[in-house]
Design goal:
Elements lengths: L2 H6 L4 E7 L3 E8 L9 E9 L8 H20 L8 E6 L5 E17 L1 H19 L10 E13 L2 E2 L6 E16 H14 L5 E5 H13 L5 E5 L5 E7 L2 E8 L3 H12 L3 H12 L5 H30 L7 E5 L5 H8 L15 E4 L2 H4 L4 E2 L7 H13 L1
Parallel strand pairs: 1-4, 3-15, 4-9, 10-13, 13-14
Antiparallel strand pairs: 1-2, 2-3, 5-8, 6-7, 6-8, 10-11, 11-12
Helix pairs in contact: 2-4, 5-11, 6-7, 6-8
Length: 392
Amino acid sequence: MTSRSVKNKKRKIVAVFDIGTSMVSGAIVALSSDTDTRPIVLSTAHAPIRLLEEFDFNRFYGLVVASLEAVATSLALHRHVSPEKVFCFLSSPWYASQARTITYSRPKEFLFTKKFARELIERDLKAFEATYLKNYVEIGSPAETIENKIIDIRLNGYTTPEPFGKRAKELSLHLFFSMSPRALLEAFEHVIHRTQKVVPVSFHSFAFASYVVARDTIARSIDFLIVDTAGEMTDVSIVADGILRESISFPCGKNAFVRTICTEFAITEKEAQSLIRSYTRDMLEKKTKERIRKSLITAGKIWSRNFQEALFQLTQHTSIPRTVVLTADEDIGSIFKKEVETEEFSQYMRTPGMFNVILFEYALLRRFCKVSEEAERDTFLMLESLFVSKLL
């Protein structure tokens, strides 16, 4: 797609970066125009993060910065368009987040104003910061709030799209906060600005982006789980009545499966990922396929135990819905889908039965986001591009 065709459609051009724990990806994206609401992924770049035998934060951080620089440099080669803004999405453990609820009630009706809402939110944000600041003491960097979102406002128990200036006896504010070490954000921003012209960079959590996109597009229900399995971590978020209620993370994701294959076959990370990809596409001879199957079962048991513990913790506050929206790399998405669909998790659900798993994949997202012939079909970048299009 030429720059002329982009300009004719009056599309705003942005850059999107996805900083995960197994890969850093980036894209140049043309946002919606007057005639087409779907964003277009014009070009993409990817750089894997080398797998460590044992996780070490400082070493891992250096590898991530190097991968980000490689992606930013690659995107800068696409000179046919220049982004007006950069959106950077972080996965765990690059941020801490919490969904919070503020409740307020009075015997007599009170006037709900923007000033009053701001005061309540600022007070709660300070409580959030006090809770999570201690997590960054070892890093030696102050934390910075990257997201301060109002998910829902309810007056007298009802969602109110235009609540300000109205009177009520009861108020519920549903919020989402996230923070990250300032030194980390500044390092990422510095790398991006070395290769891109100096444009504004905004940071977001992948957890909130996936929630918004799932809620507004494919969830088919107001109650669902979001399970993100990419890289070193798995994030599990619960959505009830359309509101993000709580998130839990555990240190076992895609990389645990890759490490198991590396050990079993004494091969490199790249070779292991290739084997997994061939396995899911049924392209291997019988003996190799069986060895991989047994190795994946071993890794799957470890992941399932962690997932089960996460579900147990979530049930202490609410019941678990049946619908699961799963985000995973395409080469391993079907494996995680099979793990989640097992019967052993039915005990945690509000109704008997197995999870109904919806996998975020290209076939679903293509209805909402286009990908040019020059770009790779990266579902994470498509999801994030769709989220950005909702912001602007």
